[in-house]
Design a protein that fits this description.
Elements (H helix, E strand, L loop, with lengths): L10 H5 L3 H12 L5 E9 H8 L4 H10 L2 E4 L6 E9 H23 L10 E8 H8 L4 H10 L2 E4 L9 E8 L1 H17 L18 E4 L2 E6 L2 E4 L1 H11 L24 E8 H8 L4 H10 L2 E4 L8 E8 L1 H19 L6
Antiparallel strand pairs: 1-3, 1-4, 2-3, 4-6, 5-6, 7-8, 8-9, 10-12, 11-12
Helix pairs in contact: 2-5, 2-8, 4-5, 5-8, 7-8, 9-12, 11-12
């Protein structure tokens, strides 16, 4: 949806008619803060769709009106990175437009619901972990000051984002409060540059669902089921061992599987903090994996001082491969937050 037309305010009103925005623009310029910055935002697919708009019209208008470069990471991911680069005044204009767009989305969604209280606009920044200490301040003094002076809620994640040295900083409140908050965060980031190299967070692609039907395996791509020969072969081998239909989330390939090889044993180690997602409540998940794969699976008891548990899988290579695949799919779904299989 674009900004123009009867559905929402015009592009101009999204920025220049807001007194807080105009006032801040002059303050930033006067304060000599008008330097080039890059800010990264973490967004869900629905939020990205709102920013892009129909045929890319919304993001195009945001780029033109703000003067900032707005890039959206590629890929079929549940999360995307939106990078905003430009002089500070251009960045704040872009942030204002994004915040007001999200507020407009909330207002539109509330017109179709029974909710009485309006939820705040929420944005997630991705900030190098080495700068988070300065943002929090001694004993939390800086983050408290930012909260009190802007009226926005600010939360700095305790853990770094997967495979990166960045943390998520969640800001929520009214659009005006969010813009003031982002300004103050930018000041802190300029005063305390990152220390050392930063490994940027890159969202993982969404895992592809797999359906088994009529002895064939299909991966789901958009609205279509595409036959997958490697998984079909694995499925057919597994079905010789068990009447249960396997379900998976990723698309592994297991070449050269023999239909009737002797039983063998395979061992793997799993971190203690992830073993729960393999076992499931009252053993439901591990029993499913046993039934689907046809393999015997034993999980060793926790040993004192060890952070890992040993899993022993016994069966044919086809059984073992399928059990490994299902265990890895469980781990992937847990780590990426994609939910249960």
């Amino acid at each position: 949806m674009s900004f123009s037309g009867a559905t929402g305010p015009s592009e101009e009103s999204l920025w220049s008619s807001r007194p807080a925005c105009r006032e801040m623009e002059s303050k930033v310029s006067e304060g000599g803060l008008n330097v080039t910055l890059t800010i990264r935002l973490l967004m869900h697919g629905k939020e990205v769709g709102s920013i892009i708009g129909k045929k890319g019209e919304t993001v195009k208008k945001m780029r033109e009106e703000s003067g900032a470069r707005i890039n959206i990471s590629e890929g079929n991911c549940p999360e995307r990175i939106v990078t905003i680069t430009g002089p500070t005044d251009a960045i704040f204009k872009a942030f204002a437009m994004i915040a007001y767009k999200f507020e407009e989305d909330i207002t539109n969604s509330m017109s179709n619901s029974t909710a009485t209280s309006k939820p705040p606009v929420t944005l997630r920044l991705v900030v190098p972990a080495s700068q988070c200490g300065s943002l929090i301040g001694k004993g939390g003094s800086k983050i408290k000051e930012i909260r009190e002076s802007t009226g926005a809620q600010v939360q700095v994640a305790g853990d770094m984002l997967p495979n990166s040295t960045e943390r998520a900083v969640t800001i929520s409140g009214t659009p005006d409060a969010i813009i003031q908050c982002v300004k103050q965060i930018c000041v802190v980031m300029l005063e305390s540059p990152p220390k050392g190299a930063t490994i940027p967070y890159r969202p993982k692609p969404a895992s592809t669902p797999v359906i088994f039907a009529g002895g064939q395996a299909y991966t789901i791509q958009g609205q279509y089921a595409i036959p997958h020969p490697d998984l079909t072969k694995l499925h057919q081998l597994a079905m010789q061992q068990t009447p249960f239909t396997p379900l998976g989330q990723t698309t592994p390939a297991f070449p050269g599987l023999d239909a009737s090889p002797p039983a063998s044993t395979h061992e793997l180690t799993i971190p203690n903090d992830l073993i729960g997602c393999i076992i499931g409540r009252q053993g439901t998940k591990i029993n499913e994996i046993r039934q689907m794969s046809g393999a015997q699976i034993k999980i060793a008891n926790a040993t004192e001082g060890s952070s890992e548990r040993q899993i022993t899988i016994t069966g044919t290579p086809a059984n073992i491969s399928l059990a490994q695949y299902l265990i890895n799919a469980r781990l992937t779904s847990e780590v990426t937050g994609m939910g249960a299989l």
